[in-house]
């Protein structure tokens, strides 16, 4: 039985899957495996993967499209390792990633551990590192109430925790919804500062779509998970900030009141952290408040008569 399984679902990823798989295998320990799910691709994805000879590589194929969440759950069910990691078909695993992350998982006593990323674009190969800043288990839930502070393909997790949570839900932001559920149940989520992947930025990404973003903001399951975490960490229910901004039934006075109440609750919770971490949460809160107010103004203008 391998100790670590890396899950990689892919649909029509022939152009990038080879580099993603090879970089992952180079960083993969001997007692680990990489499981790729070809999710009903119409291109040469499967042939590219089949052309890579490595005993640690497993290829599964689905004749009908499953989507990311169902595909990940299928890969989880097909494996039995103690630890589970994620990778995407258009990113690159950085050297030494898994050895570093397994050590960090133990060091932080984490249940779900994430890394940071360096960003690059396919065209100009532009590399843009993010600040190698960690987020502790104590601060992580507050970050989650403000934004999604991690990239899904940097994950390494304890399988027992994913099993307890029931795996991924079929919602627009299946990763963020899972993090919310995990944090609300008291599991330890940590972002280690060390970069884990080179993250490819391109216009075709699902998360770049305005339709996808709105579907995520209004998804009932994600809203419920968010509210449960808010009640656990803030002592009160709350709605996602972007949902407030696009709520047409909420007048400006109600918007301002709900936003101010949320900000006070987050600030009070942040004050229980150490000085540095509290300062980071307050700075992130200030940026998010500015962004959601700007989104609100944009929404109001878009509904004005022409």
UniProtKB/TrEMBL annotation:
Query: What keywords are assigned to this protein?
Result: Glycosyltransferase, Transferase
Q: Which domain of life is it from?
A: Bacteria
What InterPro entries does the record point to?
Glyco_trans_2-like, Glycosyltransf_2, Nucleotide-diphossugar_trans
Q: Which Pfam families match?
A: Glycos_transf_2
**For the Glycosyltransferase 2-like domain, which residue ranges apply?**
5-143
Kindly give the SUPFAM superfamilies that the UniProt entry links to this protein. Answer: Nucleotide-diphospho-sugar transferases
Q: Which GO terms describe its molecular function?
A: glycosyltransferase activity
What does the sequence similarity comment in the record state about its family? Answer: Belongs to the glycosyltransferase 2 family.
> Which PANTHER family does its entry note?
GLYCOSYLTRANSFERASE, GLYCOSYLTRANSFERASE EPSE-RELATED
| Protein name, entry field | Glycosyltransferase
Species of origin = Schumannella soli
């Amino acid at each position: 039985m391998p100790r670590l399984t890396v899950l990689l679902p892919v649909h029509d990823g022939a152009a990038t899957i080879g580099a993603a798989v090879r970089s992952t295998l180079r960083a993969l320990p001997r007692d680990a495996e990489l499981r790729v799910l070809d999710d009903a691709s119409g291109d040469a994805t499967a042939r590219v993967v089949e052309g890579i000879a490595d005993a640690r590589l497993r290829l599964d194929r689905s004749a009908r499209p499953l989507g990311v969440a169902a595909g990940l759950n299928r890969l989880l069910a097909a494996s039995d390792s103690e630890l589970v990691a994620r990778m995407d078909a258009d990113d690159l695993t950085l050297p030494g990633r898994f050895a570093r992350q397994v050590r960090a998982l133990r060091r932080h006593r984490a249940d779900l551990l994430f890394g940071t990323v360096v960003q690059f674009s396919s065209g100009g190969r532009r590399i843009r590192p993010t600040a190698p800043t960690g987020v502790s288990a104590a601060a992580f839930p507050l970050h989650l109430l403000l934004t999604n502070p991690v990239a899904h393909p940097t994950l390494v997790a304890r399988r027992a925790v994913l099993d307890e949570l029931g795996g991924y839900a079929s919602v627009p932001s299946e990763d963020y919804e899972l993090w919310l559920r995990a944090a609300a149940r008291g599991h330890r989520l940590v972002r280690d500062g060390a970069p884990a992947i080179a993250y490819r930025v391109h216009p075709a990404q699902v998360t770049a779509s305005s339709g996808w973003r709105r579907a995520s903001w209004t998804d009932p399951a994600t809203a419920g998970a968010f509210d449960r975490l808010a009640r656990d960490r803030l002592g009160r229910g709350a709605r996602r900030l972007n949902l407030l901004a696009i709520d047409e039934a909420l007048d400006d006075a109600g918007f301002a009141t709900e936003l101010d109440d949320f900000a006070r609750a987050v600030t009070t919770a942040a004050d229980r952290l150490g000085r540095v971490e509290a300062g980071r949460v307050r700075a992130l809160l200030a940026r998010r408040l500015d962004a959601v107010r700007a989104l609100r103004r944009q929404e109001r203008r878009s509904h004005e008569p022409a």
